[in-house]
Amino acid sequence: MKILVTGAAGFIGFHLSRRLLADGHMVTGLDNINDYYDPRLKMDRLAQLGVDTEAVREHQSLAQKSNPQVDDVPYSGLIHDSAGGKFRFALLDLADRDGINNLFSEESFDAVVHLAAQAGVRYSLQNPHTYIDSNITGFLNILEACRHNPVSHLVYASSSSVYGANTRMPFTTHHNVDHPVSLYAATKKSNELMAHTYSHLYGVPSTGLRFFTVYGPWGRPDMALFLFAEAMTSGKPIDVYNHGKMERDFTYIDDIVESIVRLVPKPPKGEKEWSGDAPDPSTSFAPYQIFNIGHNQPVALMDFIGELEKNLGITAQKNMMDIQPGDVPRTWADVTDLFDYIGYKPKVNVSQGIAEFVAWYRDYFGK
């Protein structure tokens, strides 16, 4: 297949692109290489995919010089890798409507995996407009492109954050999610509603994936595991929110990728027995569906820190703090529907996953 992966320089997008290439697909990666976190990590991920990152930097620099008031990078062709062109990279912002339309019309993708977004719950408290530009306007541009350049399947990233104030455990996609507690979560819920509209009106087959606390090698520096490792190896204390009384359904990156790979060739067709009298939020009469992707086993934050301490050989200094606005104390994914649909459910436990992360972290940073 010819597959577009947005957010290809990001954590999940990089791993997914690498797996799709290994499986023999042709992949086009899209990213704007913003500075939400260190762009060097994003460039290093692209280098692993065979991209000439110096060409990317030169393109980015020229775009910024031509329009220094705007951070968005206009689409002006694809940057090919050096390994025969199976992976190609487009330096492009989601909010660039014309650039997105040109990319879709010129490339004729078979499927799209849309992972690019402004991430982070806490960042949304200080930078709300960024979330509207990327997660709402950007997603609309992707939907419009899929409408006018039909694809067999649009798979897109939602988030476990959409469960918000819900406290019924485990979280299931059959629950309503109408009480988000952060703007980030609200944008992800909006994405699900927008996707359903396009599935109904224009027949765009869409699958939304609610990811639960993804971690692993090449992970995001703003996530807890990375922040903890950085502080501990630098002799600094770690911030432990809600005084450690937190549980997360930590999900290893390989399990996320395996699930997506199995889902891409299985677009929804619509449920003939779906009823508006008792509407199931996870499916529809339209070609639309939602899945959780989580390990299905919440882990106490203090146990998670303990595994990291064991693997690093360092006892963390801990700053016990109140819970942050927008955070929830516990997450737990019901993945029954996912397993029934693709015959796979996440299986890498925290002990294995943290060991893999630490091995990569020590190698990458030389610590």
Features:
eight-stranded mixed sheet; two-stranded parallel ribbon; alpha/beta
Describe this structure in words.
The protein is an alpha/beta fold and 367 residues long. The chain has helices at residues 11-22, 39-48, 53-66, 97-107, 123-126, 128-148, 183-202, 224-233, 253-263, 301-312, 336-342, 350-365, and strands at residues 2-6, 26-31, 79-80, 87-91, 111-114, 153-157, 206-211, 214-215, 238-240, 247-248, 251-252, 288-293, 299-300, 318-320. The strands form four sheets. An eight-stranded mixed beta sheet has the order 3-4-2-1-5-6-7-12, with helices on both faces. Strands 8-11 form a two-stranded parallel ribbon. It starts with a strand and ends with a helix. The model has no long low-confidence stretch (mean pLDDT 93).
What is the structure about, briefly put?
By secondary structure, the chain is an alpha/beta fold.
Major β-sheet annotation: 8 strands, mixed
What would you call the structural class?
A: alpha/beta
Radius of gyration: 20 Å
Please estimate the helix content.
40-55%
Helix-strand sequence: EHEHHEEHEHHEHEEHEEEHEEHEHH
Report the mean per-residue pLDDT as an integer.
Answer: 93
Shape: globular
Strand order of the largest sheet: 3-4-2-1-5-6-7-12
Number of helices: 12
Work out the oligomeric state of the chains in this entry: single chain
Count of distinct strands: 14
Cα distance spanning the termini: 40 Å
In percent, how much strand structure appears in the residues?
5-15%
Name the poorly predicted regions.
none
